[in-house]
Design a protein that fits this description.
With 147 residues, this protein is α/β, with parallel strands linked by helices. It contains 4 helices and 7 strands. It has a 5-stranded mixed sheet. The C terminus is likely disordered.
């Protein structure tokens, strides 16, 4: 909704039908032009390179490792410019928050390497961030940025 408010075309996606229905019912009242899509992050029904940026915010820690890898590769497949991943960096998974696993900065680094694309890893306010650059004109390599 914030992206739409700032003038960007946005698609909000969730695997849960009820979540998408809730978004669909609330968005018109908020006046936000956001398209919704019910989809599994590991199998997005979108063409290759069909959106500028994919945001996977606090998603991958809620998926088992194999599903998380598929979701990251799907994000890379459908994005033209970049993929932005945010995860909570916790010592223990919080089941109440839907977390199935913990994620470390080393995990983010490995995920970035697995894409075969340039990437950066950052930490901020207890979250870890992975930004994968898909822009062919960019020429930096993956690195771990200081906290």
């Amino acid at each position: 909704m914030l992206l739409a408010e700032r003038g960007y075309d946005a698609i909000a996606s969730d695997v849960a039908e009820r979540t998408v229905e809730l978004l669909d019912s609330v968005l018109p009242r908020l006046g936000r032009p956001v398209r919704t899509l019910r989809a599994d992050a590991g199998r997005l029904p979108l063409p290759d390179r069909s959106v500028d940026t994919v945001h996977a915010i606090h998603l991958l820690e809620q998926l088992d490792p194999a599903h998380g890898r598929r979701a990251l590769l799907e994000a890379v497949r459908v994005a033209r410019r970049r993929v932005v991943v945010a995860v909570a960096l916790l010592d223990e998974a919080d089941e109440a928050a839907g977390q199935l696993r913990t994620v470390t900065p080393s995990d983010l680094q490995a995920w970035g390497c697995s894409t075969g694309r340039p990437f950066d890893v950052h930490q901020h306010a207890g979250d870890g961030w992975l930004v994968v650059d898909l822009d062919e004109d960019r020429a930096h390599v993956g690195r771990l940025s200081p906290s």
